[in-house]
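look at this one:
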Amino acid sequence: MSTSVEGSPGHDQQPGAIRHPDPCGPVGWGTAIETAEEIAEFARWFPPSIFPARQAELRGEAWTTRAPQWVIDRLDRLDPDRRIASITELHDLTR
């Protein structure tokens, strides 16, 4: 148990205390911001109008927009028959 001044339980250990995620920890705003930045970087190669799309359509768009090799490599991880509904789903499936 964490302690604060003079050995008393820390505020987050008090009964009924509300716990908030550490924004710099593994789950919190730090992770959310990094994920949002990754999605934004990935999204710049695909217009929203392409979704829903399958792997072949996404690869064609990546070629048209001259996406870097890392984008192509991520697209290669997809099941060719699956329809991807959004850039967020595409990002999550190819991490």
